[in-house]
Amino acid sequence: MKTPEEFLSAHGFAAASELDRQELLLSFLSEMEKGLKGEKSSLMMIPAYVGVDGKVPKGSKAIVLDAGGTNFRSGVVSIPPKIEFRENKSMPGAKGEVGVDDFYAAFSAEVARLEDKAPHDRIGWCFSYPADATPDLDARLVRWTKNIQAPGIVGQFVGGELAKRCNVKSVAVVNDTVATLLAAKATEGDKTYSSYIGFILGTGTNTAYVEKNANILKVPGLPQEGSMIINAESGSFDKAPSSDFDKIVDSKSGNPGFGLLEKQISGAYLGPLGLEIFKAAAKEGMFSSRAASAVLGLGSLETMDFDNFCASFAKEGRQNPLDTIFAQSDDAKMARRLGLPVFERAAVLTAVQLAAFAIKSGEGVEATSPVAINADGSTYYKTRSIPFGDTVKRELDALLVASRNIHYEITPQVEDAPMVGAGIAAML
Q: Distance between CA 118 and CA 77 in Å, rounded?
């Protein structure tokens, strides 16, 4: 019988030790350059039309709205970062179709509630649905996701529409990854960073960074030496080695052929990936007949259960199906040897993409000024099966500090980073 490592290799799964970091890094940098120039690339490299120049003074405040799921949040961001007067409300359109006026009324009512708590004309909106950013920090909704039913809003410039209803000049609209980058500004205090990266690794993944030579984008009116935050849509990178299991997960997804890196590292897909590995192993006789029959009958696998099983962790009040399926010691050992490489690979691929963004934004600056990386998301911080964050840092040390003398700092986790970043967008 094959060893777990031989089985994975036979199906094209490149273990962490087998990944060519330098080749992947060069591929990522090449895709970034192509995307910036408007050439064919797996990375969209979308200009956010906002920079990071200037300090945010202590005591600054802004009204913030955060919409990106079936609920939206509102409150006041103050610096040092703190959310005050927070409220959670149902996202208009989440429980049934709403018209245009009712949609904006839900948000304008929150602005009215908060207008005596912060400057009325300083409003930031984290709007995390597919939208085209504009130079005046607005966003035109392309389509809804997460089953929001508000068809009249599609095609509208949501910031401008809300501003009219709130009787203000403008509303600063950013997506969650750009907001996560901006939230790093709230942690800097008296520190000096050479640049900033915002990274989300939760259910999905994405990265934003500061492009120092944004004139490459041919944005009208941008100074020759101007800089700009770029939303890379990094989960779409498609040059990482793909196994038989990755291809099956991709084919069963709602968007086959797209978001290939996201399907290798993010929480929505690690569980399904583990299930495909276990099922293939069961068919090849790597488990006992009882375990094989049980795993082949398993319809789905949550990433939390996959991770907890690989970590030998029992979550109180949650029955893990893998603990039952792999109750025999030999089956459990085999399954963990098959499962852990999924998380190890994800950590290396995470580090490679962060290194690419740090190189792009930090090369040529003083080594004493690190690139700030603000990481957000449950997969990055809550993975139990491996020390995920420590693994990423170890890889970054090799890829950046040792190889290129580019220094970085993973900033302290900013609670409610999208809200904080949206507030900073309004303040800047």
A: 9
Q: What is the pLDDT of residue 363?
A: 62
Domain(s) of CATH 3.30.420.40: residues in the chain: 61-174
CATH class of 61-174: alpha beta
Gyration radius of the chain's alpha carbons: 23
Report which of 137, 141, 145, 198 is spatially closest to residue 168, judged by C-alpha positions: 137
State the Cα–Cα distance between residues 196 and 409, nearest whole angstrom. 10
Place of tokens 């603990």: 323
**Whole-number pLDDT of residue 224:** 43
- Regions of the chain where pLDDT drops below 70: 214-226, 362-368
Q: What is the DSSP string of 113-128?
A: HHTTTS-TT-EEEEE-
Question: Is the CATH number of domain 1-48+189-413 3.40.367.20?
Answer: yes
Task: Annotate 94-121 with b (16+ C-beta within 10 A) or e (fewer).
Answer: beeebeeeebbebbbebbeebbeebeeb
In the prediction, which pLDDT does 185 show? 79
Closest by CA to 401, choosing from 380, 364, 370, is 370
Whole-model pTM?
0.90
The b/e string for 306-333 (b: 16+ C-beta within 10 A; e otherwise) is bbbbbbeeeeeeeebbbeebbeeeebbe
Rounded to 5 degrees, what are φ and ψ at 124? -115, 140
